[in-house]
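User: Reviewer 2 asked us to show a designed sequence for the structure in our supplementary figure. I'm pasting the structure tokens here. Could you produce the per-position amino acids so we can include them in the response letter?
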């Protein structure tokens, strides 16, 4: 494998830091060309120095001077703002772009990299949720290879490599069930922020951890899978698998099911995307089947977790509905994390936004950006009325 020059958008987050751990284990195969962060200036500085990044971007322009002053002695070029990110990802010096910014904010920079024909290691699921049809169409036009980083979609991608041209019958997306899998609906209604942030298997940022607790994260993944694998919603099944060992499965016409297994460790799918199609060694915990004891599976409960139902509804409606849903979810989760609303208010606010927001059947990319702004504002208004 020839050395690859990597850009990591969102290098200080959970995915970004784990990606750098992968690169740390294979310094002979990867070179860090660009690192970006929103606010975490101290960590960004340390990362840039350790990996001798060529360029860094701090999106919060108020922190530019701090970062620039720290990196100037190391001859690392420093920039500020999202426009700088979008400009730099088009560089001929970049071979692959890991997009791990949180939320809708990742769309603009991902599209800039796609427009430049870059290989994309996609960890920002909201990009495909909000604008999946437009993103995949543009990637096909520019020849940009989209490699999924979500453990579930990486698993599906790996299972499909053995399909030899045969069409899949169904996708089975596995879900841990989050912290409230065994709780009653009445108890979930009283759940606190601290309880919602206690994910049983994965160590993730606050936004995605709350999404896992509501199962909106799995809904977002259903939408992402629809676009990544060109598969209709009625062929994407969600199954709860508390052990998080089977990361997802693909079923074929003869009933055969191929699954990808591994311990919960995001470095595996990150490395698979960065090194694709090669497999590299990784210092991680390997499966011991004798120690697994049992693997269990359950149907997803859309009554206890209505956010999952919202995602299927958004796919059925099409147009800009998934963008409306995603914007409302981002606003509602932010409000829940600030103790402004209760747990089930998240799903209620999303549902009301999906009913009230302006629907566009065939949105342009400009429509998607406008939808995100208006739906977020609509959700904020509903949050103000719903304050607990």
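Assistant: Here is a per-position design you can include in the supplement:
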């Amino acid at each position: 494998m020839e050395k690859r020059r990597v850009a990591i958008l969102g290098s200080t987050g959970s995915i970004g830091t784990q990606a750098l751990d992968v690169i740390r284990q294979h310094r002979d195969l990867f070179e860090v060309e660009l690192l970006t962060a929103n606010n975490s200036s101290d960590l960004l500085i340390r990362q840039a120095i350790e990996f001798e990044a060529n360029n860094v971007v701090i999106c919060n322009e108020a922190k530019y001077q701090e970062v620039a002053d720290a990196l100037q002695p190391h001859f690392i070029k420093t920039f500020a703002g999202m426009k700088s990110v979008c400009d730099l990802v088009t560089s001929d010096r970049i071979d692959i772009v890991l997009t791990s910014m949180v939320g809708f904010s990742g769309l603009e920079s991902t599209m800039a990299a796609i427009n430049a024909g870059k290989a994309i290691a996609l960890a920002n699921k909201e990009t495909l949720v909000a604008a999946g049809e437009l993103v995949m169409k543009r990637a096909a036009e520019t020849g940009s290879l989209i490699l999924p980083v979500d453990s579930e979609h990486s698993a599906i991608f790996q299972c499909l490599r053995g399909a030899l041209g045969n069409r899949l019958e169904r996708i089975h997306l596995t879900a841990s069930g989050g912290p409230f899998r065994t709780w009653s609906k009445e108890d979930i209604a009283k759940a606190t922020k601290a309880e919602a942030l206690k994910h049983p298997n994965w160590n993730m940022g606050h936004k995605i951890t709350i999404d896992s607790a509501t199962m909106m994260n799995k809904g977002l993944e259903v939408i992402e899978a629809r676009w990544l694998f060109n598969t209709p919603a009625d062929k994407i099944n969600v199954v709860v698998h508390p052990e998080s060992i089977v990361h997802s499965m693909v079923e074929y016409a003869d009933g055969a099911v191929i699954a990808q297994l591994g311990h919960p460790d995001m470095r595996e799918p990150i490395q698979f995307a960065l090194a694709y199609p090669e497999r590299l060694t990784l210092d991680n915990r390997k499966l011991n089947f004798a120690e697994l004891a049992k693997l269990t599976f359950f149907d997803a409960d859309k009554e206890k977790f209505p956010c999952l139902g919202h995602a299927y509804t958004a796919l059925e409606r099409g147009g800009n509905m998934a963008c409306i849903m995603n914007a409302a979810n981002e606003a509602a989760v932010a409000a829940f994390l600030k103790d402004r609303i209760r747990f089930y208010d998240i799903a209620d606010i999303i549902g009301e936004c999906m009913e009230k927001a302006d629907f566009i059947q065939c949105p342009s990319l400009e429509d998607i950006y406008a939808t995100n702004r208006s739906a977020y504002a609509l959700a904020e208004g509903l949050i103000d009325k719903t304050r607990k």
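For the response letter, you might also mention the following. Residues 2 and 61 are 35 Å apart (CA to CA). The first strand starts at residue 4 and ends at 9.
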